[in-house]
Amino acid sequence: MTTILLAVFLVFAAINLTYFLLFFRFASGNNPPATASAIPVSIIICAKNEAQNLNNFLPSILEQEYQDFEVILINDASVDETLEVMEKFQRIDGRIQIVNVENNETFWANKKYALTLGIKKARYQHLLFTDADCVPQSKHWIHEMSGKFHDEKSIVLGYGGYFKNKSSLLNKLIRFETLLTAIQYFSYAKLGMPYMGVGRNLAYTSKQFYQQNGFATHLHLRSGDDDLFVNEGATEENTAICYEHKGVTRSVPKKSFTRWIIQKRRHVSVAGNYRKKHKVLLGLFYISQVLLWFLFALLAFTRFWQFSLIVFAVVLIIKGILYFKAAEKLDEKDVVWLFPIMELFLITTQFGIFIANIISKPTHWK
């Protein structure tokens, strides 16, 4: 029985290691620089009860050094002063257009409906999406993202990180999870299998949007305006990636574990709607992560403990190198040093989220 356990451990250690070796395609590779883009861009921000964040962060959008852009601000049935803040900024900057969305019985609290109205309002074909609590990390964010639109590229996947709080363990966990997610979706895109993007930093053309009939296939789902849209329409030919520091956005992370779990439950709830091949690949990766740790823990109490420890250590070392290289690209190096603890805690948390979502599904985007 112990021998069988060891064999299974070696199989899943090999599977897990294979994934991380494939991820080196992103971590060690280079990304072609942005072209000298001069295309007009519509920046679209959907906000629900974001008055304070708009006051704090909208100026960083308006201060972008780019010759031709507009900002579409969507007030998604807010009950705070979001609309008033939008109107204040519109009075001082003519590039701002406002879409005021009121709830109705058919599309109650549906972000995709609000985004669709915003996209229809846009004057320009190239659309760049971010959130109300996001801040571009340079004044060249629009240039970096829009510079990836060339030839047949109609979807651009960017990196949306979070602000750092060195004294917060939760902050490190959130940023480690964000780093791992980015490693996966950038790596899959580089391998010719793009499967998701994040709405904090995402771009696509209006032509792409209308060719897919917008969010029609998943409009009934409260989440997925970013990852499900990309999963449905992204291909090796039409997708580009942008992870240069000047093209990154960062946003305010959740400050309580409970609120972060609620956010992750929304994100995880849509994964079951991915294409079958993506569900299989992502599911196998997660299973290999779980069984690597679980089987090693069991083998630690057998006569094979020394051999198992060597195999486990080799896998961790290679994963550590990958994490460091990727974190260096995305400016997240401070979360790498605790990666074994972070990885184990994240695996456990994801399992809890999976169980919680089986019991009840999240119902609102915010």
UniProtKB/TrEMBL annotation:
Query: What EC number(s) is this enzyme filed under?
Result: 2.4.-.-
Q: Which UniProt keywords apply?
A: Glycosyltransferase, Membrane, Transferase, Transmembrane, Transmembrane helix
Name the InterPro entries on file: Glyco_trans_2-like, Nucleotide-diphossugar_trans
Q: Which residues form the Glycosyltransferase 2-like domain?
A: 42-176
Main EC class of this protein?
A: transferase
- Give the transmembrane region(s): 6-24, 280-301, 307-324, 336-359
Q: What domain of life?
A: Bacteria
A Pfam family: Glycos_transf_2
The record's annotation in Gene3D superfamilies points to: Spore Coat Polysaccharide Biosynthesis Protein SpsA, Chain A (3.90.550.10)
A single GO molecular-function term is: glycosyltransferase activity
- Identify its protein family: Belongs to the glycosyltransferase 2 family.
Known PANTHER family for this protein? Answer: POLY-BETA-1,6-N-ACETYL-D-GLUCOSAMINE SYNTHASE (PTHR43630:SF1)
Protein name in UniProt? Glycosyltransferase
Q: Which organism is it from?
A: Autumnicola musiva
